[in-house]
């Protein structure tokens, strides 16, 4: 298992990798590193010594892409200083923009999310004036046989991709175009990867998919042996009671009672669900093609909380989608108040070329209105997060130690099962230990705790 970073070998060419976007991209970079190591590369954190510079990119909002264009200009400076350097743009932006990335005359290699196996060959063939590109999407590729090289440094928590692509066509979203159709990874390879991580000292795995609730492995021999997401969760949870299991992202239209009951059955399945609502207005949800209503969403939340009263809930919210009225916006605020999310990722709507919304609906909420609505949403969530944390004061939690606190190196940090970050005195504990902590005070982001 290649989860330990190789000792730097002076004779090997060096690759420098920057990763943008979602957790899936972080895991993809680990797959890319595995493939490149097999081809003789060693990872470097120093861009100045890299012969290969890669940016694994995100297209979800325009500002994510603008950041990458800025980075490409920085890479130009590296190439001016060291002309042999190869620059590769991979991931979602590579898939979306394809040869347009070559107009910069900086980029030598363009590879989409399903073509990483060909990356070593693309890099070898790239030459000045002869850039290389592979943006073919696949119906089968899951990189199931590739052991990602873990780039995180804590050695405690790891991502495992269980599926790729997405079959939902939310009207605002570019992902189905950049990551292709949904396909599930063979469950045996997922369980093996999780078990190997556990044997190597990891204590938490995060199962990743664009929509984990639609995970379905169709057994080639018998339909009786098909595996759905609830069954996969159980298989991973059974590896060891000391291996925590998390997952992301759940879709409100698909999260099943079976998944909720399976979570409740296993102590080591973390009681936290990331359940993006996007909007509290039925008119907006319909236009977004989310395929559920506000009432359905609230019903799912009620079910989750009736089975697991302390389950953490987080969400994603978009402010200022096409045609959003003040009333629609107030519906979002009232839904947030009603659910009382523990945390949220909140965004202004950003039109993405080629999506259904870009084709059908004008992006007509003025920028200042979008910003004002987003600010109200953020202010409300800050209050809800703080209130949610205040309720934890005095309670005792079992926390998995992930590392040393950034603010104070005599303190450690870790997470509760419900995904709240705790900081507490080190007291001789180390990353990978489970410790009991009591919450003493809080901010909207952190539970300040003491050892029990
Ligand atoms: N504009 C703004 N936010 C978006 N998201 C996805 N597409 C867009 C877009 N075009 C948000 C959604 C999604 C999260 C990953 O990003 O909230 O859940
Ligand atoms: Fe991830 Fe979506 Fe961004 Fe692609 S576009 S990196 S899938 S968040």
Spell out the blueprint of helices and strands.
Blueprint: E1 14-19, H1 23-38, E2 42-43, E3 52-57, H2 62-81, E4 86-91, H3 92-97, E5 109-111, H4 119-125, E6 132-134, E7 157-161, E8 163-164, H5 175-179, E9 183-184, H6 187-199, E10 204-208, E11 216-217, E12 227-228, H7 229-237, E13 244-248, H8 257-265, E14 272-274, H9 282-287, H10 294-307, E15 312-319, H11 326-339, E16 343-348, H12 356-360, H13 367-390, E17 396-404, E18 411-415, E19 421-425, E20 434-442, E21 446-451
Parallel strand pairs: 1-2, 1-3, 3-4, 4-5, 5-6, 7-10, 10-13, 14-15, 15-16, 19-21
Antiparallel strand pairs: 8-9, 11-12, 17-18, 17-20, 18-19, 20-21
Helix pairs in contact: 7-8, 11-13
Bound molecules: 5'-deoxyadenosine (5AD) and iron/sulfur cluster.
Task: Explain what this protein looks like in three dimensions.
With 452 residues, the chain is α/β, with parallel strands linked by helices. The protein folds into 4 domains: 14-134, Methylthiotransferase, N-terminal domain (Rossmann fold, 3-Layer(aba) Sandwich); 152-270, Transcription Regulator spoIIAA; 298-389, Transcription Regulator spoIIAA, CATH 3.30.750; 396-451, OB fold (Dihydrolipoamide Acetyltransferase, E2P) (Beta Barrel). The chain has 13 helices and 21 strands. The chain has a 6-stranded parallel sheet with strand order 2-1-3-4-5-6, with helices on both faces. A 5-stranded mixed beta barrel has the order 17-18-19-21-20. Helix 4 links the parallel strand 5 and strand 6 (132-134). The protein starts with 13 loop residues before the first strand and ends with a strand.
């Amino acid at each position: 298992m290649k989860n330990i970073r190789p000792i730097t070998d002076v004779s090997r060419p060096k690759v420098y990798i920057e990763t943008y976007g979602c957790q899936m991209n972080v895991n993809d970079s680990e797959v890319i590193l595995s493939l490149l190591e097999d081809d003789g590369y060693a990872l470097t954190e120093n861009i100045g010594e890299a012969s290969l510079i890669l940016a694994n990119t995100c297209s979800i909002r325009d500002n994510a892409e603008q950041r990458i264009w800025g980075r490409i200009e920085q890479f130009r400076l590296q190439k001016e200083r060291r002309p042999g350097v190869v620059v590769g743009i991979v991931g979602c932006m590579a898939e979306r923009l394809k040869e347009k990335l070559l107009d910069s005359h900086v980029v030598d290699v363009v590879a989409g999310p399903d073509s990483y196996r060909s990356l070593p060959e693309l890099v070898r063939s790239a030459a000045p004036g002869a850039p290389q590109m592979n943006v073919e999407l696949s119906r089968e590729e899951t990189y199931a046989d590739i052991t990602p090289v873990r780039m995180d440094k804590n050695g405690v928590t790891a991502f495992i991709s269980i599926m790729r692509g997405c079959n939902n066509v939310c009207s605002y979203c570019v992902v189905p175009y950049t990551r292709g159709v949904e396909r599930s990874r063979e469950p045996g390879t997922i369980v093996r990867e999780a078990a190997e991580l556990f044997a190597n000292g990891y204590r938490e795995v995060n199962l990743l998919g664009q929509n984990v609730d639609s995970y379905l492995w169709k057994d080639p021999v018998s339909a009786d042996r098909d595996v759905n997401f609830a069954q996969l969760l159980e298989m991973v949870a059974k590896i060891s009671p000391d291996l925590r299991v998390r997952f992301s992202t759940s879709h409100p239209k698909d999260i099943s009672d079976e998944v909720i009951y399976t979570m409740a059955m296993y102590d080591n399945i973390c009681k936290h669900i990331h359940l993006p609502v996007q909007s509290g207005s039925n008119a907006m949800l319909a236009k977004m093609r989310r395929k559920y209503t506000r009432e359905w969403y609230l019903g799912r939340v009620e079910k989750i909380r009736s089975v697991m009263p302390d389950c953490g809930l987080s969400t994603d919210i978009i402010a200022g989608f096409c045609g959003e009225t003040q009333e629609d916006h107030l519906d979002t605020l009232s839904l947030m108040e009603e659910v009382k999310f523990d945390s949220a990722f909140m965004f202004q709507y950003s039109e993405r070329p080629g999506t259904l919304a870009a084709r059908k609906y004008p992006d007509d909420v003025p920028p200042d209105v979008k910003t004002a609505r987003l600010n109200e949403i953020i202010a409300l969530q800050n209050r809800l997060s703080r209130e949610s944390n205040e309720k934890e004061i005095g309670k005792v939690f079992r926390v998995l130690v992930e590392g040393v606190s950034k603010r104070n190196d005599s303190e450690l940090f870790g997470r509760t099962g419900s995904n709240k970050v705790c900081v507490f005195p080190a007291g001789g504990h180390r990353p990978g230990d489970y410790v009991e902590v009591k919450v003493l005070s809080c901010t909207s982001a952190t539970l300040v705790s003491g050892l029990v």
